[in-house]
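name: query_chain
kind: protein
chains: 1
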Amino acid sequence: MCFRIVRLLAVAAMLVAVAGLTTPAWAQTYTGRIDITIEDSTGGRLPGVTVDLTGQMVQSATSDARGEVHFLNLNVGTYQVKANLPGFNEWKSASITVASNVSVPLAIKLAVAGAKEEVTVTGESPVLDNKKQTTAVNVSLEELQNVPSARDPWVVMQSVPGIVMDRVNIGGSESGQQAGYIGKGAASADTTWNIDGMPITDMAATGSSTFYYDFDMFQEMSVQTGGADAKAATGGIQLNFMLKSGTNSFHGQAKGYIETEGMQASNVPDELLAQVGGASGEGDRTEQFSDFGGDLGGPILKDRWWFWGAYGKQDIRILKLAGARDRTVLKNLSLKTQSQLTKSLRGSFTYFSAGKYKWGRNAGATFTQPSTQDQGPVGGPNFLAKGEVNYVVGNNLFLVGRYAHVRGGFQLVPEGGMDTAAWLDDASVWHGSYSTYMTKRPQNTVTGDGNYFKGNHEIKFGFSWRKAEVHSTTTWANDYYTQNDSSSVLSGTGEYPYMLVNVNAPSSFDVGAKYINFYVGDTISLNRMTINAGVRYDRQIASVLPTELAAPSVGILPAITAPAVDDAMTFSLLQPRVGITYSLNESRKTQLRATYAMFTSQIGTGTAGFLSLATYRGFYLDALDKNGDKMATPDEFIQSSYGLHIANGDYFGFDPTNPSAPPEESIHRVGDFGSPKTHELIFGVDHELMTNFAVSASFTWRRIQDFNWTPVRAGNGVMDGTQYVQLGTITGALPAGIDGSPEGTYSVPYFAPKPGVTWDPAKGYLYTQRPDYHQGYKGFEMSATKRMSNKWMARLGFSTSTWREYFDSLSGMGDPTPRLSSPNIDGGYVVQAAGASGKSAIYMVQPKYQIIANGAYQLPYEIDLGVSYLIRQGYPIPWNWSTSGGFTDPLNGSSKRVLLTPDFDYGRLSPTSTLDMRIGKRFTFGKVSANLDLDVFNILNTNTTLGYQYSKNSTKYGEVVEIMQPRIARVGMRLIF
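structure:
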């Protein structure tokens, strides 16, 4: 068997090479399949039956000796099947719905010619997949088009049980920026993004997408959150967007949607208006939302060659609570062509481009307008170019090879310009300017996959190779910014007009990574039981590329030319995957399932970047503001050994004893590290209530372990929790009853290094495996899915979950002080702060409850209704105190944010709920229909608080910084043919 597998892999590799595909990636299924068995009236299997498939694709095959036909790698959509064998009546199907990563079992019985037919036409395709290995939600074209939404993928993600978002998108108010989120015991960094099966994850910001999207280009969207599929790269969320395709019929649509400020209500309380009414006097608002575009597809040569193309443009303009403006323009272009070259060979080419243009990035409570950044592409829009070849060898071997190139990257330029200095006030609000950032992020990917059928076995195998690089630069105006936060001032006074100057040398960041994987598995079909067993091997290699750094205009640091560090770090892991499904009866309408899987985490391109000699360099100066403009100039610097505070370690990236000399080697080191592991068990049950309607329930258990971390090197070891001693306790009163949070006091211990333990910043950090630490996740979810039939569709979901971290000893901690970024609570919640634009006050933990309901109904007179409802537990309320304190006294020195509450579940904001509705009218003219839609978002005009200023040091402590946007209407028109 091993020799056969090796031989099959070799054949697949040869096919890919012959097809001219010279580079593979994370394999992610984006197609569906139909598995057909053909019998006569006595139950005997029939070989030699000609089966024709029409619809989204056109194919033909002949049943094998077992009376089986397999149509693999099908575009998602609707198909018809026809079976013919001399001496038997022809068999025709009704619509067969094919979804991504789903196997549709289809049983055909042929009646003898001249006899009464037992089955001539089937009903809809089965809802349950007896080969199911994953927990996933497939969002169909009907739902995407008929259920009201903000029309971006992140909004669809929030409707999937177990996923928590860091924002509430009201009618597109947040569609100009990627959302932060967490999955089921998985950080967003382990999310993978795919278009038509090819990975487009931004590996410089792992878990984020390289692109923004036009909603109407999707045929289907799939969101996978767990399971034993050997193709799954990580235990994180697996997203896949299936673009539309050309068919034998010309089809397309033109669309236009518009919202204006005049279509919006007001929901800001009077007391909040008085506090931060902003320029509009009405808080956060949508000034304009528009979405225009269209697509067209059809045959170039009927049954042989098809095309499809689309263009879309979105314009999103937002007024923030404090008056800053945020505008985003998104442009998308897609082209796809497919060809059935021969009966056994077909190919396709896809081009997808996405240009993002943004003015006012970061606009919000902590950024004034000049300090916001304008965003645009570098060298043209980001794009994906993909080629694919499918080849069928006989009836038993199916091979596919794909190659893709991705151009990613962007630039951020401060609206205040590079001639204006940046400064941060004592309320943590930015003024003046900000930094300029430019980045290029190319990727190349090749994949090869195969399926081999032998008896009741289906052998699946594949490989992937991917290379990603990042080339980035960051520059501050005058190479520094001023900080007026008194908690961080080192002058000894701690009060303005003394200020802290942060000198940051111009930085360049050039890194790369390679990702290689192989997988093989066997699906064994045993009557009502299906067994899936497989193994996946991942090898990830991080490197440092040659880098040049300029000298800063302030200080004594030189320019640097840093050499490459090839294959600096390598991560390898063999991961078993096992799944079993069992149908309780012959009708196969109820099935039990269980899966076990091990996953690794994906490393970012910058994993080894800290080993470069060109790591970020800088130091701190004291200044005295003489003219009162809040911005330090060189003549206001306090000159004392260039202001370097060497004793307190306030410098980084260079040797303070010889700062003018380029470093000879990195101060950072790599120790014993490993590949992070997630162990997952899922137990579930699925039941088909009726045709096109199924319910499901699943319990998921995860243990996440073998994390890596980068503690500070000190003495002969690292500064972990064993090197600290408690110095005292911070006590005080918590805000009373804000947003329902409990009244009470806080008593929080704070720590410093033990006597005699010193930290030498010149020793840097050590990348090593984190000891005595793991995380645990438990979650339960239920769902009900009704396909569009009999004039209605619905998708319902409920989930409850908990995700916590555990410390077996102090060795798994750094500074044991409970901090906002590291609570250090054994058995406490795993927390992830929002890291995207304008969301600094949001912290995410798994909610105790989440309820989702989407649905659509077709009324008489071609009137359509749609509804979307979501409610979940509110965000945590993490009151904190930004202490000053380095390694000698946590209350005097550099700052750290101490968590004042016992855990992140001590207080919660009010539950977040949104209710959106649509009413539409269709006008039909032959094969053309015109749809007029009216959507209303946040129909109850809820004004739930999404964030406060939680820092006790801020002059705005306890004030609201963000609420949900108010009710807004959107009108739209779609012309479909």
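note: The helical segments are 2-18, 141-146, 153-157, 270-276.
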